[in-house]
Amino acid sequence: MNPLSTASAAVSTSLLEDFSLEMTGKDVPKLEEARDSIPQGTRINVTFLGNENLEMRLEASRAVKRLGFVPVPHISARRLGSRAEFEEFLAALRADGTGANVFTVGGDPTRPEGPYEDSLALIETGLLGEYGVRHVSISGYPEGHPDIAGDALWSALREKNASIAGQELDGSVITQFGFDVDPVLAWLEKVRGQGITLPVRIGVPGPAGVRRLMSYATRFGVGTSASIAKKYGLSITNLMGTAGPDKFLRALADGHDPARHGDIKIHFYTFGGLRATSEWIAQFRKDNLV
Question: Can you give the pLDDT at residue 226?
């Protein structure tokens, strides 16, 4: 058993009672392979990548539902070429019964491919509710964003929170992953201080190769100093090794204060694969039962 205190073990286990996962449109075979290690009813986000088409995204969401999980399709604002394309996607999700929960994000393109600059623009169209969406997830960036100023991030978060509430939709925040708990807890406290009460899912990398984790961290502007790497359990001198979020989850459990940080859950970025991530979670929960 991992050397956790009783209190820390209990909190770590409770954080994982309603975790969520992420997959791409191409991961349906991998989801089939991992299905028995994922609890029924788990929320599974389906990304909106530029190299995947509408049917691939829809098929992935249908597979999530068919296998007994809750699909959370992503909608990338800057990847949508037109309002008609946005409505086509929403209509198809509604027809499949897979569009009650969505995740809206600005997306990678530097320039919008259509009329939507960011996820707030999607939310403010009012189309989500019209097409049966009931829960809207939005992004949070505890360590900031490499291309967006901090003030702009906070303003956008407040405005999205207000727009979701104004449309009487449920909502939540899913954060970018990180390796250091301290900025996550500080960011959570600031979120609550600004009156944002949405539940937050803390982004955590599933177990994966160190080289891959470092590559994603560089891409998304996540801190990987030697001290941070050591805290997380990354060996930057052994890029052929692997690392899981054991230490991160323990530190999060120890530092989490519901009165200051509010309701939090965990969202796993499955950089090492759906099956590896889900089996790691099952083992972690087993090892830390009290």
Answer: 54
Torsion angle defined by CA atoms of residues 218, 270, 161 and 53, in that order, rounded to the nearest 10 degrees: 90
Supply the pLDDT for residue 93.
98
Q: Say how far apart CA 156 and CA 123 lie, in whole Å.
A: 12
Q: Distance of CA 270 to CAs 116, 169, 200, 239, 266, Å?
A: 28, 28, 18, 18, 12
**Quick one: average pLDDT of 122-147?**
95
Cα 92 to chain centroid distance, Å, stands at: 23
- Model pLDDT, residue 243: 64
Q: What's the pLDDT score for residue 1?
A: 38
Amino acid at 241: G
Rounded to whole angstroms, the Cα distance separating 205 from 85 reads: 32
* Distance from C-alpha of 154 to C-alpha of 140, rounded to nearest angstrom: 9
This prediction has a pTM of 0.90
Q: Alpha helices of the chain — where are they, by DSSP H? A: 6-15, 28-34, 54-66, 83-96, 119-124, 127-130, 150-166, 181-193, 210-220, 226-232, 246-255, 258-261, 274-287
Residue pair 36/63 in contact by the 8 Å Cβ criterion: no
Q: What is the pLDDT of residues 224-241, one digit of tens each?
A: 555 566 655 554 444 455
**What's the DSSP call for residue 78?**
G
Distance CA 209, CA 234 (A): 10
Q: How far apart are CA 198 and CA 188, in angstroms?
A: 11
pLDDT at 3: 41
- Which secondary structure element, helix H or strand E, spans residue 44, and what is its range? strand 43-46
